[in-house]
């Protein structure tokens, strides 16, 4: 296995931070080695050192983007950590349905290969068909163009399907395609995918009733987390809801948000808002 020296590690750490805001801690040299050695081989280069040498002398080479892709973790699954979806079904969507008379907007930030926004779309179609008729916008964004291309395809392996998708939903909303399963267009059409870097200026976003921003803040440093949360504040409607990952919190980052317990899940609302 190629090992990386500290100068090359610092170069990769700066490159990744510049493109994605992901903060690689000093003890992540092994991760960089295991993720980038295969990329070097795919690119026909003899070693990790050769890959980094090429990156250094060709600052606009497409391999810069591929390095960021290789370092990024895209781990996700259908109905991941189930409790937020229970809260949506049992409390939040019923409350929003009675409060709103026009369309609803849900933003799924850092959506990876699409399981999260498609889980929301299936939940809405199953339990709130009136919302589908009334118009619901599910906007799903991610930094990675490659992962968004996968998400737009809506094609999943048996292993991905086995992780969290109830059998009834598989039967209703997926078609078998060879060894894979493709999500039906009635669900795919409910989600708009867009590429967007959370750490850079965001595309024009409509005010959101609900923001799912799960398992992405963990990769950023404190200042970046604060900057992103302060921008979420401007996008979230005054009585909207923010979900973070189960190991993430707004505490010590942004006092404008207050945690709300809903069943076994915690979400966040802006302090002045009225909870359901
Ligand atoms: C671990 S996945 C989380 C997926 C999903 N939200 C979930 O909880 O299952 C993290 C995702 O964040 C994306 N990501 C990382 N840095 C980002 C950034 N600066 N802007 C937008 N997305 C980013 C990655 O591409 C990856 O798909």
Number of domains: 2
Give the SSE string: HHHHHEHHEHEHHEEHEEHEEE
- Give the biggest beta sheet: 5 strands, parallel
Structure annotation, total helices: 12
Seen as an oligomer or otherwise, the chain set is single chain
Are there runs of 5+ residues with pLDDT below 50, and where?
none
Q: How much beta, percentage-wise?
A: 15-25%
Hetero ligands: S-adenosylmethionine
CATH topology of the largest domain: Rossmann fold
CATH class label of the largest domain = Alpha Beta
Strand order of the largest sheet: 6-2-1-7-8
Q: Please estimate the helix content.
A: 40-55%
The CATH superfamily of the largest domain is identified as Vaccinia Virus protein VP39
> Which structural class do you get from the secondary structure elements?
alpha/beta
Which descriptors would you attach to this protein?
three-stranded antiparallel sheet; alpha/beta; 20% strand; Rossmann fold; binds S-adenosylmethionine; 276 residues; 10 strands; 12 helices; Chemotaxis Receptor Methyltransferase Cher, domain 1; 45% helix
């Amino acid at each position: 296995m190629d090992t990386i020296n500290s100068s090359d590690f610092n170069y990769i750490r700066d490159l990744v931070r510049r493109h994605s805001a992901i903060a690689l801690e000093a003890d992540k040299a092994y991760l960089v080695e295991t993720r980038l050695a295969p990329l070097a081989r795919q690119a026909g280069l003899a070693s990790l050192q050769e890959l980094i040498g090429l990156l250094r002398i060709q600052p606009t080479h497409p391999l810069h983007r591929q390095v960021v892709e290789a370092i990024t973790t895209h781990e996700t699954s259908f109905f991941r950590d189930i409790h937020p979806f229970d809260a949506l079904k049992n409390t939040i969507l019923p409350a929003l349905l009675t409060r709103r008379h026009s369309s609803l907007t849900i933003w799924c930030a850092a959506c990876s290969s699409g399981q999260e926004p498609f889980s929301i779309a299936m939940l809405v179609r199953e339990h709130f068909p009136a919302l589908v008729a009334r118009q619901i916008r599910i906007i799903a964004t991610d930094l990675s163009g490659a992962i968004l291309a996968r998400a737009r395809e809506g094609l999943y392996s048996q292993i991905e399907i086995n992780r969290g998708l109830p059998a009834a939903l598989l039967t209703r909303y997926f078609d078998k395609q060879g060894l894979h399963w493709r999500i039906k267009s009635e669900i795919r059409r409910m989600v708009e995918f867009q590429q967007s870097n959370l750490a850079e200026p965001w595309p024009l976003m409509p005010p959101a009733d609900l923001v799912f921003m799960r398992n992405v803040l963990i990769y950023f440093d404190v200042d970046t987390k604060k900057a992103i949360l302060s921008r979420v504040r401007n996008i979230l409607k005054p009585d909207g809801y923010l979900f973070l990952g189960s190991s993430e919190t707004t505490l010590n980052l942004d006092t404008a948000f207050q945690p709300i317990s809903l069943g076994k899940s915690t979400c966040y609302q802006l302090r002045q808002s009225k909870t359901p």
